[in-house]
Amino acid sequence: MKKKLYTLLVLIPVFAACREDKLQDFEDPIGSVYFYIDEKKEVDEILYSFIYSFEDKVVVNVPVKCSGLATEYERRFRVEVVDDLTTAVPEKHYSLPSEAIFPAHAYEAVFPVTLYNQDADLQSKSFVLALKLVESADFELGDKERQIVKILFSNQLEKPESWQDWIFGEWSRVKHKRLIQIAGKDLPSVDELNNDFNFWYYGVGQELKNFFIKNYPVLDEHNQVIEPW
C-alpha cells in the first residue's frame, strides 16, 4: 500500500507539469489574420472618393481580425501589394508601412494606408490598390476567402453599394450629383437606407425620377441620355 501511495505522489507533479505545459501552449498559440470589411462579401472592397474632402492625402484604416486567443503583448502583422490587381502607383497614389501592430488583448486591428490626392487623373479615372496579408513571425494566414482587399479610389463620385437601380435607375455620376442635391447628403449604407426607406424611396427617389422626366433629355458624363425608369 505504501509503495502504491508513493508512486501516486511521484506521478502527481508530473501530471501537473504536463497540464501546465498544455495550458501554456493553448494560451500562447500563433494567431491567424484576415481582412474583415463586410461579412456578406468574400472579396472585400473599400471605396474612397476625394470629392468629399479638401485634403491632399487621407489615411484609410483597413480592418483586420485575428483568430485564436488574444495575447498580453503587441504582435505585428504584414501586408503586401498584389501587383497584378493594382493600378495605383506607389508614392504617387499611395504609401503604406511594411508592417502594422496588433494591440495586446485585442482581436481587431487596422492596417493604415495613405492615399494621395495629387494626380489630376484622379478626377477622370479610378485607381485600384490591392493588398494581401502575408505570414509573419506572429501570425499565420486565416480565412482564405478574406486574404485580399481592394481599395478603389478617385477624385470623382463612385457608385455606392447602397445604390438601388429599382429606386434610382441606372447609376451615373450626373444622376448621383442630382441625388445629392435633392437629398442634401449622399447615400448612406445599405442598412441605414433600409431604415429610412420612406425618405429615400418616396421622397428622394420619386423627386429624382420626376426631375429627369420633366427635363428630358438630360445627358450623363458619357453624353448618353438618362432615360426615365
Give a written overview of the molecule.
There is one protein chain. This protein is of the alpha+beta class. The chain has 2 domains: 31-154, Immunoglobulin-like (Sandwich), CATH 2.60.40.1740; 165-214, no CATH class. The chain is 28% helix and 27% strand. The chain is built from 5 helices and 10 strands; from the N terminus they run αββββββββββαααα. The protein has a 5-stranded mixed beta sheet with strand order 5-7-3-1-9, with no helix packed on it. The termini are far apart. Mean pLDDT is 86; it is low at 5-12 and 14-28. This is DUF4843 domain-containing protein. It comes from Odoribacter splanchnicus.
Topology at a glance:
Layout: H1 2-27, E1 31-35, E2 44-49, E3 57-67, E4 75-81, E5 94-95, E6 99-102, E7 108-116, E8 127-134, E9 139-141, E10 148-154, H2 165-168, H3 173-183, H4 190-195, H5 197-214
Parallel strand pairs: 1-9, 2-10
Antiparallel strand pairs: 1-3, 3-7, 4-6, 4-8, 5-7, 8-10
Helix pairs in contact: 3-5
Strands, total number: 10
Query: What's the SSE pattern?
Result: HEEEEEEEEEEHHHH
Overall helicity: 25-40%
Instruction: Give the oligomeric state.
Output: single chain
The level-1 CATH class of the largest domain: Mainly Beta
Notable characteristics:
elongated; 229 residues; Immunoglobulin-like; alpha+beta; 2 domains; five-stranded mixed sheet
In a nutshell, what does this entry contain?
The chain contains 5 helices and 10 strands, in the order αββββββββββαααα.
